Amino acid sequence: MARWAIGDVQGCGEELDLLLGKIGFSAERDQLWFVGDLVNRGPRSLAVLRLARSLRDNAVCVLGNHDLHLLAVALAGARIRKNDTLQEILSAPDRSELLEWLLQRPLAHFAGGDLLVHAGVVPQWNAAQTLSLAAELQQALRARTEQLLTHMYGDMPDRWQPELRGMQRLRFAINVLTRMRFCTAEGRIDLKHKGKPESVGPPWMPWFKAPGRASGDTRIVFGHWSALGLYQGPRLLGLDTGCVWGGALTAINLDAPDSPPVSVASRQPRSNGE
Residue 238's beta-bridge partner residues? Predict the structure, then answer.
């Protein structure tokens, strides 16, 4: 059995099919770890969602910001944005089953010594705290679906404090796990900048560069940052190679860390979008 981690698909179904063929994926033997953002902006979000659901336990997927946005549009009346490509899912005959499956996905997953998240982890959280907060979110998403999806939008609070409660605590955790790229060493997050790591200066830094990061002893697999591209560092694996923006879709065998990444070039028009 191999665990293959795959970067942000975002509806790039053709590229995903080609990538699975290229790595020789077998649903009887292997497991896929999706970093989140299965859907949106690409042309085949419905096909991607159906494929991931069909794999059952052979697919692990954490929720990304675009996945949450789909749920908010479908279940909480959020506005569809100009560049969204969600209508095919919303009109599908199996819409309810697909949305229910997506609603049950976690916001963090840990197995084999690896922590899977969509965006990142603030310096103050270790792996256990990250999983605990993700579990809080998952419970709220299931029990208070419309309330959480309605109130998750927003950039505040922007700094971690253990005493945060209620929607402020939940919103901060969602923003860290699904939107963050830059932060300060004290745990303040920036949700505006989307460029390369060197595009911002102090006190901001890539979340994984924070000194003394409490999660530094755990390998973290993440996506969400197409401007960063493929990133392989000590106990770090960033896999968003911007397929939906004309880059590539990339997979890495988590159980063979010395093996090279496997990529399929995008069939989408090249863009600088995010």
Answer: 222, 231
Look at residue 207 and give its three-state secondary structure.
Answer: helix
The identity of residue 76, as a single letter, is: A
pLDDT tens by residue, 68-80: 999 999 999 999 9
**Cα Rg of the chain, angstroms:** 17
Model confidence over 164-173: pLDDT tens digits? 999 999 999 9
29, 110 contact by CB (below 8 A)? no
Task: Assign residue 196 a region (left: φ > 0; alpha: ψ between -120 and 50; beta: otherwise).
Answer: beta
% the chain with pLDDT above 90 = 96
Domain boundaries, the chain: 3-265
Helix 127-143 and helix 166-178, axial crossing angle in degrees, nearest 10: 120
Query: Read out DSSP for 22-84?
Result: HTT--TTT-EEEE-S--SSSSTTHHHHHHHHHHTGGGEEE---HHHHHHHHHHHH-PPPPTT-
Degrees to nearest 5, angle at CA 192 with 189 and 196? 90
67 and 36 Cβ atoms separated by less than 8 Å: yes
Rounded to whole angstroms, how far apart are CA atoms 145 and 151?
Answer: 10
Topology of domain 3-265 in CATH is: Purple Acid Phosphatase; chain A, domain 2 (3.60.21)
Flag whether pLDDT at 272 surpasses 80.
Answer: no
200 C-beta neighbours (distance < 10 Å), count:
16
